[in-house]
Amino acid sequence: MNIPVLDVEAGIARLLGNSTIYFSALKRFTVHLGAARAVTAQIAAGDHAGACRTVHTLRGAAGLLGAGEVQAIAMEVEKALASGSTVHALLGDLEAALQRVQACIDVTVPKEVATPIKPVQANAMRDVQELLDHLGALLDEGNGMAIDIMDKYEIVLEKALGAAAWHTILAAGRDYDFDRALVALQGARSTARR
Prior knowledge:
This protein is mainly α. It has eleven helices and no strands. It starts with 7 loop residues before the first helix and ends with a helix. One of its GO terms (biological process) is phosphorelay signal transduction system. GO terms for molecular function: protein kinase activity.
């Protein structure tokens, strides 16, 4: 089966046709390009849980953006880690796939994204709770626009949820781990209501 290195059309479709958000997320994907080396180091240090988290985060980010080859290999690495099998050869494959994605990103991402991002305007929201509801819905859908909402309204959201909780949510979101970000958001809102 021939899996594409980077399926831009599928990635844009996954983000509801918003190419601006897609290319912005694709630029941020570069933080994951050292994942194979990071997993190798985590395994060598005996940090099995950390290695699992790194691969899981990579798989989610790759899937969101249409990096099918990386997603498929990351899934195999996850399975191998879960079963206690050796992952050395798979990590070599993953490193090569990540390098191919980097080459695609270099030629695919426009230097400047011409269309401005149009997130929901804060003044169109009745209050911060509505903004939090909107963010929660985006995270629940796995919609990449959540990251842009977090970036645009960071000061408001940090004040509403508290610095520690907000930084946990933001870190998870930027790692494309929307499930973890949603759980942290729900926990922070529950604590804030008390």
